[in-house]
Amino acid sequence: MSAEYWPAGRRITIHDLQAATDRGERWSMLTCYDALTAGVFEQAGVRALLVGDTSAQVVFGYPDTVPVTLDQLIPLVAAVVRGTTTALVVADLPFGSYQAGPRAALASAVRYLKEAGAQAVKLEGGRRVIHQVETLVGAGIPVMGHLGLTPQSVNVLGGMRRVQGRGQAGEELFADARALERAGAFGVVLESVPAELGRRVSAALRIPTVGIGAGMYCDAQIMVWQDMAGLTIGRLPRFVKRYADTHAALLAAAQQYVAEVASQRYPDESRSYA
Ligand code: KIV
Fold this sequence. Notes:
With 274 residues, the chain is an alpha/beta fold. It has two domains: 3-243, TIM Barrel; 245-274, no CATH class. 41% of the residues lie in helices and 13% in strands. Strands 1-2-3-4-5-6-7-8 form an eight-stranded parallel barrel, surrounded by seven helices. The longest helix has 17 residues, at 246-262. The relative contact order is 0.11. The model has no long low-confidence stretch (mean pLDDT 97). The structure holds 3-methyl-2-oxobutanoic acid. 3-methyl-2-oxobutanoic acid binds next to β6.
């Protein structure tokens, strides 16, 4: 980590992310949905935090990202902003908050900046949302694109685990990525695409590509934090690497707490007021 290049005492901006990419430095993003966790990730050197619509699943317990609303996400974005001082906070525009057109997109994004203090927004799609991207950028709102597996389209894609961008779909994705850059996006997430397509897009764009299941050639990486830290269990996508077993640690702690309450070992005198 070349800490000397990153600003101290102020928020990272989209220009800092571009500068890191220009000098060939790989940087990290994680999703985040609360203040405490945000502080930990910032301390670890995560440069940008995405308050993703994956919160629909990992925070709110929905089966996919479709149901979550802007009103549900705004308090989470505000919490992550309050929990950090240097990380760039990107707020995910949920399904239904921008598809209707540039006016809807602008109204939603403005709420994120004004009510929650986000520094940037993310939306899914390429050429089909290009007018939204142009309008937001024109209004001074940094926009991150999202191509490949776009979970808000789960009902069209017919599932969530499929690798996207094979064959002709790869050419379409490539054209979408170029269109996003031309429209002024400051970065683009590539989700669940072949590594070779991730390499091609990263080589063709100047703006950073942020990979999630898009191989080793992307300029930056992002993961859902509960996947990265091993809180989620069950069948996980191939690209997920669990850097801890938080599920096991939390389970063991909670089990011990339950047992100590039952056996009256907690609270003992040392944890009681005289
Ligand atoms: O909502 C989210 O967490 C995302 C990431 C998977 C990139 O969009």
